[in-house]
């Protein structure tokens, strides 16, 4: 079978799978499933504005530029100038989330939070707190298992569940997805694309999940940050919480400003750097 014909067949299978899954949940979640399938009026672009799916005459679309099928994975944007995106995984966590948000707010910085559905369902009020304080919410799966090892129907369910709780809590549909462990394959990319999700990785990793000393977290971030960096950090870590003000102060002193990941995506898409060749699996 020719590669083009095979890709078209695979995409048809994926769309059919998604439709079948959504129809299967109509009984238990009719309103959300209907909006997800047929309305899809709102997308999360800059975390503070709800933007219509179809712009009126004379207006430009506010979608991020990555409109083609998800053939690349966003790692950082080398053309973005002196801007960086702070990202936090694994929340919301009641002992930490508000503290992170309050520190960001005190320094007039916004960030992107990639949430796990199992945590989000227990604390939907924290999703609202993240969003209402000007930050962006992305998906980080339901279970935090390696999704590249899942069946397609499991992938759809992981993303659907997480997106559902975010929409119900904030009224905004996320457009970003960070796969657990940064692991993905072609099927996960195709499903993400079909669901309107941009796959986001990172290029700065201080290994804060290992709980190194605060000084080490700060130094690793500062030494590896460059124009357009996406900085990976995690909720639930006291060292990260303590390092955050120092990281922001040092980066600001070096002339950096802070944006959400969606805002970073809006810089010249042809110059977006990615980790696709190194990390994509068959």
UniProtKB/TrEMBL annotation:
Q: Which GO terms describe its molecular function?
A: hydrolase activity, acting on carbon-nitrogen (but not peptide) bonds; metal ion binding
Question: Any keyword Metal-binding?
Answer: yes
Q: In the UniProt record, does the keyword Metal-binding occur?
A: yes
Q: Which UniProt keywords apply?
A: Hydrolase, Membrane, Metal-binding, Transmembrane, Transmembrane helix
Q: Which Pfam families match?
A: Polysacc_deac_1
Gene3D superfamilies tied to this protein: Glycoside hydrolase/deacetylase
Gene Ontology CC terms, in alphabetical order: membrane
Query: What are the NodB homology domain coordinates in residue numbering?
Result: 82-259
| Transmembrane region(s) | 12-34
Please list the GO biological process terms of this entry.
Answer: carbohydrate metabolic process
Q: What is this protein called?
A: Polysaccharide deacetylase family sporulation protein PdaB
Lineage, broadest ranks? Bacteria, Bacillati, Bacillota, Clostridia, Thermoanaerobacterales
